[in-house]
Amino acid sequence: MTRTALIDVGGGFRAIFGAGVMDRCLDDGISFDHCYGVSAGSANMTSFIAGQAGRNHRFYTEYAFRKEYASPGNFVKDRNFVDLDYVYGTLSNHDGEYPVDYAAFEANPTGFTVVACDARDGSTKYFDKSDVHFDDFDIMKASSAVPVACEPYYVDGVPYFDGGIADPVPVQKALGEGYDRVVLILTRQRDILREQRRDVAPARVLSRHWPAAGERLLNRYRIYNDEVALAKQYEKDGAVLILAPDDLCGLNTLSKSYEGLERMYRKGYAAAEAIAPFLAS
Prior knowledge:
Blueprint: E1 4-8, H1 16-28, E2 34-38, H2 40-49, H3 55-61, H4 72-78, H5 84-90, H6 102-107, E3 111-118, E4 124-128, H7 138-143, E5 153-155, E6 158-162, H8 171-176, E7 181-185, H9 197-207, H10 211-218, H11 220-236, E8 240-243, H12 258-271, H13 275-280
Parallel strand pairs: 1-2, 1-7, 2-3, 7-8
Antiparallel strand pairs: 3-4, 3-6, 5-6
């Protein structure tokens, strides 16, 4: 029997591409045996596993424009450009503006892995579904703590940064765990290599307090490029389907426009048309 997995690599506001992919899956009745989420990808998957079509879209296109969600003011106040507690707590808890349907999330048999980076030694941490609890989405906060733009997020006393600096494209993880049809959501063009230069200055800042995490950030480009190259090899063998936007619609990790977000969402929704034939092949 074919075992299926979905990977969403996140990417800040670009990750609305994955939100579009997953809404199409919900509309088409497509599910997976396991979901692997990195950074904002883990948030996308929380709504997906809970069966809440349209929820992610609202977060990106409405809530994300609030200063409480993401703003320079937040950074001045507590060194967190994105207020992870506001996004994954105030808005998402049972008494929030758009709560996660936790009962549906818990009842869904789909497995869930969330990737984070241990700030102390740079090691990769793989959280699982048992680490998510009612009104407790801390592992998504940990996975989404963008280095320098955010302070590390603590879970059980351990500081974590964004999973994208540890295992940004966990294709080998999924295949190694026995999934033989893997849909990979990228939020950069599939053939554009990641460059180190943008990470050099932030890595220097990060290394003052978290040298191991700073080293991870400095080498993220190499890990990302190698893992995408590996995914392309598996794609030739028919084990992986890569979905990626053909352009970024003016979005990057921490900057956005309403028009760009809408365009990127629609690109994801359209790209997901390829999933059903791939899973049936």
